[in-house]
From TrEMBL:
It comes from the Bacteria. Its cofactor is Zn(2+). GO terms for molecular function: dCMP deaminase activity; zinc ion binding. Residues 5-119 form the CMP/dCMP-type deaminase domain. The keyword Protein biosynthesis does not apply. Transmembrane segments: none annotated. Belongs to the cytidine and deoxycytidylate deaminase family. Zn(2+) binds at H70, C98, C101. One of its GO terms (cellular component) is cytoplasm. The active site is at E72. This is ComE operon protein 2. Pfam families: dCMP_cyt_deam_1.
Amino acid sequence: MERISWNQYFMAQSHLLALRSTCERLAVGATIVRDKRIIAGGYNGSIAGDVHCADVGCYVIDHHCVRTIHAEMNAILQCAKFGAPTADAEIYVTHFPCLHCCKAIIQAGIRTVYYAKRL
């Protein structure tokens, strides 16, 4: 049996996280890695304590659901919340990040972005 690469492993983790998404429009997962260690993961969905789109529907303004937080931002905020530095980290995302997430990724000092699908 051939062993998967680290890149395949971390992308698989992102796909697994996407299964936790509560967004009915698109399920996205993100995994932040430093030195081959997972430091945070996130998926798109409602903010903690709010209702889920899967339960009450999406609240869409200008073609974007404003009820949810994106997977990349969720993972970055997990790092901030628990004190995990993001400088020189890598992020694995199931879909190409939006402009706002790209800016957050750059500002967080994440050096490399891997994505599985371009929308």
